[in-house]
Amino acid sequence: MPWDSIYRLKSYPIAGDFRIRPSPLRRLFALFKPFGLAALIAVLSAGCQRSKSIPFVEFTSVPLAAPGNPNVLIAVGGRVDGAHPDQRIVLYARTPEAWWVQPYTEQPFTKIQSNSTWGNLTHPGQEYAALLVGPDFHPPPRVVVLPSEGVLASAIVKGTPPVWQRWWFLTACGLVALSVVLTFHRFHLRQTAAELNVRFAERLAERTRVAQILHDTLLQGVISSSMQLNVAVDQLPADSPALPPLRRVLQSMGQVVEEGRNTLRGLQAPLESADDLARSLTRIPQDLSPADDAGVRVSVKGPALPLEPTIRAALYAIARDAVVQALQHSKARNVAVELRYTSSELRLLVRDDGQRIPRSARGGAEHLFAIKERAARIGGRLKIRSRVFGGNEIELRLPSAVAFEPHPREHPPGLFRRRN
Questions:
Q1: 363 pLDDT band (50/70/90 cuts)?
Q2: Pick the CATH number of 56-161 from 2.60.40, 3.30.300, 1.25.40, 2.40.50
Q3: pTM (2 decimals)?
Q4: With contact defined as beta carbons under 8 Å apart, do 123 and 131 qualify?
Q5: Pick from 22, 65, 120, 275: CA 20 to 30 A from residue 40's CA?
Q6: For position 132, what pLDDT does the model report?
Q7: For residues 252, 335, 371 and 287, what is the CA-based torsion angle, rounded to 10 degrees?
Q8: Measured distance CA(243)–CA(234) in Å, rounded
Q9: Are 398 and 346 in contact (CB under 8 A)?
Q10: Percent of the chain that is helix, strand, coil (3-state, to 5)
């Protein structure tokens, strides 16, 4: 029968009008409706009473997790629902060996208060158990497995870990340790940079003094001797057999004078700013006077940052020696010098298309040895690479803390620095 037939209405004509009457099935449902509601209420009431009759135990105060110690007592507490007045709580604490009744063997029971709470003392353990038992229960003092016979309800919790074992404390310690390491690293870099600056300033002063002495004594003497020899050669007859060897000597002395001047320029390197360094690098080709078919290109990338004075002098000397190495020893036709400024480092790259530098010569060649020595003095990372089909690269990287002058705004106060 369709569901809507239960509520189908019938019409009966009465004195020219209609009176609506419910169907018989609907009258039957209306008759038993109060009994259905009463049955539903009875079932719900029985369920609530049954749920109230099932006891429930829980901890409200969990002690710390610690090794068992008979000389230490700590507080523990909780509450119970559905317990009878003659029922009690038995506490156990677990050590690595077994469960032990608490707080004492002769006092194993904990009384339940009128407000359904309980509290007592216990010895430390890794886990804690609360058992709801009746008046006839006799708790064993030591068990490997908690008793179940005669136990009406139970609750087992792990001890609260100590502060130093909690995740937030370990995370905070890790962050503090990382901050200390970073602060120490920055302090070490600044201290190293200060020591290098003092050492480089002393070396630069000594190099300038030596260059002045060489210019005033040795180079001037060679130039004077060359001039006198030139005068003597001019006085010889054109067909004199001594004229060709003397001219070769004059040519050799001219080369010695030119190389001496270039060396003195590298020793002095009077640079005052980052712009001076860029301009000095662009003048390297004119100072070296390369062959007509050789080209030297210099480029500076990035905004020029203020450099330490000793770093400027060392960079100029390294770049110059690298160009000399490429032109004179590698017989390069094209040399590219690139100086790149970034916020994290300073990079000097010298590229050429000359002959490969043999591995045996990378540590012993005169200019390469000078480059490595200067790079080590300023704390830079030097790489010398040779390509398979010819060409070489000399790359120097300096961290910003060593290369650039410190700026107050770029260094916020750290953990161990006072605020002004």
A1: very low
A2: 2.60.40
A3: 0.41
A4: no
A5: 22
A6: 93
A7: 50
A8: 9
A9: yes
A10: 45, 25, 30
